[in-house]
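Appendix B, example 12.
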Amino acid sequence: MNPQLVDALRPVEDPELHRSIVDLGMLRRAELGADGTAHILVALTVAGCPLRNEIQNRVTAAATEVAGVTGVSLDFTVMTDDEREELRKMLHGDAASTAGHSHAHGHA
């Protein structure tokens, strides 16, 4: 991964999750070709994502701000069920690890 591209894409948020596509693990490839083309691969949470065009616009705008980038080649893939489950755990916590626990907080 090209560090300058990753840094430029870090502020790009998934429009539904309101978190960075980098932090969410959605950015799969960010390379800068010798011809100045940024080759980027983003994993969508679901096939047919209704906000795909919004993500495309945000990623393209951010990538073109990087010095040396003359164009953007953006491809999409879709997360697997396991990847979506990991994302859910990251966003909401692991339900299995907290099931049955009702820790009281404060003083009685």
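The first strand starts at residue 27 and ends at 32. The chain has one domain: 3-92.
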